[in-house]
Amino acid sequence: MAWLGFEVYDALNNTPWRDRMKAIFCTSTCSQTQNKPRFSRGVWLAGAILLSTLMPNALPLTAPWSSAILPVQAAETAEKTAQPQLSPEMRQTLDRYFEALETHHKFMGGVALSQGGQVVYERYLGQARPDGSAIGPRTGMRIGSISKSFTAVMIMQLIESGKLSLKTPLAEFFPQLPQADNITVSDLLNHRSGLANFTNAPEYTTYMTQPQSQAAMLQRIASAALDFPPGSKAAYSNSNYYLLSLILEKSLGVSYAQALEAKIVKPLGLQQTGYARSADQQAGEARSFSRKADQWVLEPETDMSIPLGAGAMVSTPRDLNHFFRALFQGKLLSNDALQEMTALQNGYGRGLFPYTFNEQKGFGHNGGIDGFISTSAYYPAWDLNLTVLSNGLALPLDDISLALLQVYAGQPFAPPDFSQQAQHLSETQAQPLLGTYASAQLALKIRIFWAADQLQAQATGQG
Length: 463
Prior knowledge:
The protein is of the alpha+beta class. The protein has one domain (4-459): Beta-lactamase (3-Layer(aba) Sandwich). The chain is built from 13 helices and 18 strands. It has a six-stranded antiparallel beta sheet with strand order 5-4-14-13-12-11, sandwiched between helices. A hairpin with a 2-residue loop joins β11 and β12 (360-369). α1 packs across α2, α3 (88-103) packs antiparallel against α12 and α4 packs across α8. The longest helix is centred in the N-terminal third of the chain and has 16 residues, at 88-103.
């Protein structure tokens, strides 16, 4: 199980941590509760958010709780802004940054920055497997919840073909689920079903590494009480996209893996993208690690029968850049269907999150499973793709995304000095921070807790 821990530098010893956390988490009404059920592992957005609070230079790039609605057009017709170009000096700056990350054991994985469909910068660092094999452009890494974007595209394709509609009730496929008559395909896509997130359940970690039948997974979802009435609000839930995966299979009469291959992978010519199998059986696929006691430690492996289209895919930075650009160029869906995907409710699109860098607006998704952490986004006005996939991480992933974008945009950037001595908080110092934070402005609850001799953060349902 991968947790994102963090360190606080000497200069922050006198910082009023609780006040600074409240300032970012609780812009309006805010509650703090103790002893909440433990949330799932995955993309720890909370870690990046909390780090950006304690360390102002580590600002988060993504804002999945944004409530703005951004109309989107296909890339050919979207209004373009001046596209920056990477100079040799910019490349050298990025090279120095990634050399520092490698030297100080902050990041293993790969990044790719593409403009107009062409890779303009990429870098691969670290080991893919315990045998020390190196990560390269063709190394497959698990992408966690970025899989949801692929699932949403295939569901929208079914809607365009007339086999489904956004108003199709869940009861047409799974009448045994609670409130199935009142939950629609649109609710599932937008995380507005109210169905409890199965990865949040305390028993999840007892079975996550073992194969699970669809009947067992459906029983778990059916037996959990709804978090809220369907359609009344939003809360991120992997259960929604697990069910969409089964709806896809029932509608097409094939497995999720077969649908993915036929509907997206082959039409786009993706080279290293597909449904993940056990990494021990998949040549060229990476395992994941966490940084503990100054060494990379192999993480347990979630069995891929569990997440399905909520998080069971493997891909590469190049392939993900190709996929998201193709989506916005109209190669997978009509512009009307794309508009449906990018329309936000309570901060969620249909399989997409909004991304913002300065004045540039983009869409994509992030993900996390085991020790894999990932993000991929497309900025239509720049015709720019950015993907960061990590199989080992010891700093906020958004720091890496932000560094790439700052350099690309020609903004001043100096690689950080990772040699600065960090000072860990003591458990006593951390006590005032512990609890579960919630805000009307955030679609996430954020749990701050003490484990493994460090302060850690976890966002509800991100995975």
